[in-house]
Give the backbone structure.
Amino acid sequence: MNILITSAGRRGYLIKYFKEALNGDGLVIAGNCIDGVPAFQEADKSVVTPMVYDENYIPFLLDYCKENKVDAILSVYDVDVPVLAHYRKEFEAVGTRLVVSDESFVRICNDKWQSYLYLIENGFKTPKTYLSLADTKTALASGELSFPLIVKPRYGNGSIGLCTAHDEEELDALFRLTEKSVERSWLRFESAQSDDTVVVQEMLQGEEYGLDIINDLDGKYRSVIIKRKEAMRSGETDSAQVVENEKMRAMAEKLARLTGHVGNLDCDAFWVDGEPYVLEMNARFGGGYPFSHIAGANVPKAIVAWLQGEEIDEKWLTAKVGVKSYKDINIRIG
């Protein structure tokens, strides 16, 4: 079995996990639009692809999958996932299965405004979110909202363009700054689908959590791994501890059964006044997955087994409560 991980970038650890899961029975191929990324050094093979928004991206991948007998594809990049999902039938026609959720759900995940509407409509607690300065100021004036507020791109990931406004003067300036940041960065590609490119969110006060919500390849709920975030850096978790929280688990299971997502749903959540709040959903492996893996989970192994039509050991979808771990910085010669 050959597996292609696109937009692999710095996710060398995920390449390593899938290689261990295959145990020599196939290749793990890393794809990326820039050469020389860390993931290439871990992979059995690597390929430099066109950029995701290039008109040749999908034709290139289809040809590559056919020529290299790629059995499955997954991506670790938000922008990439809906593009792949849109061409599911074309990949299936060349014998490649997408380990990717439905396009409609992926686009909800990538759009913070649509995520907010989706969560509210389905009864989840989530921070109050506004799509315009005018609506934000109306909410402030009515007492529905108060500073500080989070200003960030409507379409984006990590902490790119994220700002905190402490008063109305900062709100005005940061809203316009974020709009310009979107226009001047790669975020402009996905943001082109809407005139409204910035959202303002209530700033939640509470403990922050990362969830690996796991469905099988048919979208059936299987497990959730709950991690309390101990330290953050540039939008990613630096340190986390696996914990148990029944309310958080119940919320995650409800979300999994509702979405029918495929594989891992990386979810950011908060614990506020004894209740779980959903902050963001990412329909892919997130940067916090290694904290689950090092605590005993092995979702890549489960995905490989599901792809091969085999039963899994439920232990692969659980992690030992209490394990606390940290990310490190490693330097290697290219």
